[in-house]
Amino acid sequence: MKKREFTLIELLVVIAIIAILAGMLLPALNQARAKARAVNCVSNQKGSTLQALIYADDFNGMLPLVSKGYTHKDGHKVKSWADFLISTGNMDGQAKTTGCPSMNAKRRASSDEADEVTFTFGTWGEAATVNGTYGTPAVDTKPYAASVIVEVASGNSRFLNTGAAKSSDSLVYLQDSISGATSGADQSYFIDGTALQSYRHSARCNTAFADGHVDALSPEELAGRLKSNSDYGASSNLASFKYGDKNNVEKTQTI
Ligand SMILES: [Zn+2]
User: What is the pTM of this model?
Assistant: First the structure.
């Protein structure tokens, strides 16, 4: 019996069907991958905040925000909350667990800051200059009420005083961050209005609160949390905040 062979047309039809099926499946796979990263990001924020809370347990409820003025035992200058926790032995120094898995995990590599972990989730602890007077009405840089902020080392470092907080369950500690609304921007350990909150996970920003829980918030939902908590600054300081949307375009949310 003569063996039947595929014609070229049949082969092309089969290839076309496979291409169509792959085209249908790929968006679903990409969506699943994005979802997995968002879940992984929540897990990283929870782990980071837990380690900060363990530090706070031993030091009067203080969560590190920005940590300039400290020197790591290997000699490099500390800046970020993450590097501060690494220098105190509360964190193991794995850069990939202190930031968003949708972004590059890496360390700063400039000369006097080699090994510094700064490409991390962002805190609201830093103004344009960390030595500036705390309390200037600029919500993007200083949204916390002065009562929950402690400055040490001549104003070079700031801590969030959870012991003085009235509602730690809506007091922001860490957020997804972007160093600016420009292409190729990295994460930033501080959020100051130029470095922005990032709503990269399906238009939501993973946000860890001072009580240790993490929520994926829309800008409107975050505005609601800010409005209802007196641990944030005077209403004149809380008119709006800037953020980067899922495409890293700068937007403003009214509070
Ligand atoms: Zn993230």
Answer: 0.85
Whole-angstrom distance, CA of residue 245 vs CA of residue 188 = 16
Question: How does pLDDT run across 136-194, given as a tens digit for each residue?
Answer: 333 334 578 878 888 886 667 889 999 999 999 999 999 999 999 988 899 998 888 78
**97 contacts 104 by C-beta, under 8 angstroms:** no
Residue 255 has pLDDT above 60, yes or no: yes
What SS3 state is found at 124? Answer: coil
What DSSP character marks residue 162? G
- Ligand 1 centre and the CA of 34: distance in Å? 10
Token pair for residue 48?
A: 């980071």
Task: Give the Cα separation of 138 and 206 in Å (integer).
Answer: 23
Distance 75 CA to ligand 1 centre (A): 30
Q: Ion ligand 1 — residues with CB under 5 Å?
A: 41, 100, 176, 206
Would you say residue 128 has pLDDT above 50?
A: no
pLDDT (average), residues 13-17:
95
Decide which of 188 and 235 is more confident.
Answer: 188
Query: Ligand 1: distance of its center to the CA of 143 in Å?
Result: 22
Distance CA 92, CA 86 (A): 6
Q: What CA–CA distances, in Å, run from 203 to 28, 97, 102, 136, 157?
A: 18, 22, 13, 30, 32
Q: Judge contact between 134 and 146, C-beta under 8 A.
A: yes
How far is ligand 1, taken at its centre, from the CA of residue 224, in Å? 21
Q: Alpha-carbon dihedral of residues 73, 77, 82, 86, nearest 10 degrees?
A: 0
